[in-house]
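Follow-up to my post from last week.
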Amino acid sequence: MAASPKKTPFSVRLAVLCLILVAVVFFPMTVLFCGCMLPSFVAAIVDRHPQKTAGITIGALNLAGTVPAWLELVRLGAGIEHAITLLLQPRILLMAYAAAALGWALYFYIPPLIAAMLVRKAEKRLKEIEKRQAELTRKFGAAVTGAEAQGVPGA
Amino acid sequence: MALRDILPKINRDYMEPHGGGARQAADDGYYVTNTGGDNRVMIGHDVEIFPNKPLEALASFETRAFEARDAHEAGPQLALLCGRSRGPRITAIGSYRNVKSPHLLKLRAAGVVNWQSEGRELFGLVFDMPPKKRLMQPGAQKALQVSDDRIIPALIEPALAVLTELHANDIVYGAFSPDNIFMAGADGAEVAILGECLTSAGSFRLDPSFETIERSMAQASGRGPGSVKTDLYSLGICVAIALRGFNPLAGKTAQRVIEDKIEHGSYACMVGSERLSSHMIEFLRGVLHDDETARWTLDDALRWLEGRRLSAKQPGISMTAARPFVFRDRKFWNLRSLAMAFAAHISDAAAVFEKDHFDLWLKRNFEDRDLEDRIKKCWEKEEGSLRERVVASFCMALDPVGPVRYKHLSIFPLGFGTALADAMARDEDVQPYAEMISLQLFSNWVNQRFDEISDASMLITLFEKCRNFMAQKMQGYGIERAVYILNKETVCLSPALRDYYVLSPGHLLLALEGIARRPNRPDHIFDRHMVAFISVREPKMIDPHLGHLISQDRSYQLIGMVRTLAAIQRRFQIAPVPALGNWVISQIDPAVNRYHDADIRKAVKEKISTLQDSGNLMAILELIDNPAWVQEDLQRFAIARREYALLSREGGVLTAQLQRKNVYGMGTGRQVAMLASSVLGVIWIMMIVFLHFSEIW
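User reply:
Got it. Predicted complex:
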């Protein structure tokens, strides 16, 4: 029997509905954001890691790079023609995409750095464990490992 | 009563290597002589034995004789030295001293002596020097002839006086032989002085001709202690020899003597055609009667001595066949001789039993319902048994008053302890002895005569107890335990103690101290004999620790051993035993290693090293068997084991993670990147918004 398709929770469906409504209501802003935050959408789609952190990592800075354009749109009147005008300005796109690039840089360089630190820490802890176990073995004999009968500790 | 209570002062020299002071075991009935290192052999402080003055004429058997001198007595004395075999009667020494009769050789001193010329200990008994004249010199053909009218004051009266006193002190003399009867006084007015009876087990030293028919069939070590009746029988033989001036049985083999006695009766064999007074005939017929129930008692003999006339004893009539039974080309007319022959030729006897003609001969020649019942029981019981057992059972059935005959052994139940101890002391094979117990031959023998034997059920219980002990293989049990249970006065027969005379656990400790000083001391301090000996003689010293001693774990064995040694040292108040202490310390490692914590082990070893040469076994025991330390060590060990297990688990997890080094920490890194990006983005947005609105306003 085939598994029945997983039902999307009502809250999620409601949120998506609200988002669509907002996007429709603020359509020029939606167009601007869709254009400026293209790298974030791409990152979210191509991220194969289960934690899916790429979208947020790149998206956070991409959003920061898009905010000046959004403020400009609001100042111009938030019309669709203003949004397209802004999208066609290289300065606006450059700022948004440069911010996204910074996000990519963080995404690529921070994890190996953190991993190296964690490996070093684990190796140090392993050495400490070995040292402590050697001390226990010296003091209590091989029986302390549980591999030998208790009766002959010092033999 | 414990041996140590009965034992008089037991003395032993205990020389230090440099000839310094001796060690003492105080307040336990034993004392140790300080020889001051001048090689003198002393018993106590007053009696000295002279090894360079042997008295060969007075040596008998395996007992050696030397001149001795008591500081408080004038003239020389006789020292007799015994080894471990032949069962010296040490428990009888106290009672022997109570005998005040002048007709018994007086005991002056007794104790263990250090016989330095041979480097071993012997048991020394010092007596008054006996007169030179004896009823018959050893090896002589002729005896001192005593006339009919002199025999009573010269021999019978003194002997009965001594027997009366010995009987009152619960001792069987068991040593009547002409060469052990000394004659004091002028020629023609001699009076007998009986020689000692302590250097060997009762009747052990007697030639078969001085024993009753059934007892002479048993081996010398297996006759048992006998009774006053057997003493009277031996006295009767000696009286007959004194009256005739020679031993008519001399020169005959033991078998010939027995057969002659069976055929003609003891009285006829000894008196023959000699013309004696009716008074003497009455006495000799009474004491030499071959039927024990009809034989005179001591009261009968004393009444006779007082001049009362007793009913004449007629010689017993033994059952004789109308037709002889031919066995190995010899004709047998009576069952006792036939039983002897069967026991001597087991395979031929077994072949005879398988044929019908033996049964037919028995039925046709002996109309005896009891005999038929015994034989019938044998057939029922022994079907399919080993031939040695079959022959032993048939011999018992044919001659129920004779000894138990098995293989080459011939022993009465009451003599088994002495026989076994003697065999062990001589390093003989004791397997046949063990088989006699395991095959329940003695129980069968007693059951056949259950109504005649006063302590029959006690004997059966005793042998059953021994059989059960022998079934157990662990230390403290086996035949080693049986020998000490059945023989209350035997020394510890451990092969390691060959050069020592160990009468009690206290002596054992001192002997071990001596062994510990030797360069070739054995690997193990205790052996099976020692454990059994202590367990039987002083159960409280060792039985609580037997579980440790028989453990497979060497550390437990050592703790059990040191507990036992320390208990003996405390109980017998033995002074420090430095060599034994060092010996124990040299083996102590497994017991110290019982502690799990190396630091505790190190501390214990350091403390033990300070006990070198102290000889304090209690102190050593406290270090290796301290309950508080053991408890603390166990707790520490349990905690350490838990910690080790947790560390192992953690290490395993880390190792597994590090094996995926290329991905390890990357997830965390991405999360950190996401966090950093988010924080940076928020700050950035806030700054832009702030700048935007500040420009507007």
